[in-house]
Model the fold of this input.
Amino acid sequence: MKIILTVDVENLGKAGEIITVKDGYARNYLVPRKFAEAATRKNIAAIATQMELNNVREAKKRANMEALVGRLNKLTLKFTLKAGEEGKLFGTVTTPMIADAIVAKGYPIDKKEIEVPEAINHLGSYFVNVKLGHGFGARVKIKVEAE
Done:
């Protein structure tokens, strides 16, 4: 039976591919779970249209992500915290603090997307990585000053 995959199926193919599988596998597994549809002319045209729309949507999303990465790379956040002798902070700068500061600047970032390579518990300048997904990442500069 010829079918069109609607989603990526491991060891079978990617979404939009037309493949041949056994009738029972298609009828009992792939079609009921909405992994595939029968390869009729109508379905082939519908899937082709949907794939084109997905490509356009993905291109727009990629352009937006690239613009966001460019703006985040230029961003510098300043934190003024209490510090003791030798520039050691009373506490640390945490990912929720960084995420709140980035959101306050107008960028939609979640604290889970922020990676701090080393603990920020001294005065000075640091860089943190922001993982935006789809292979995009940015580096935000953090400056920590004493009160």
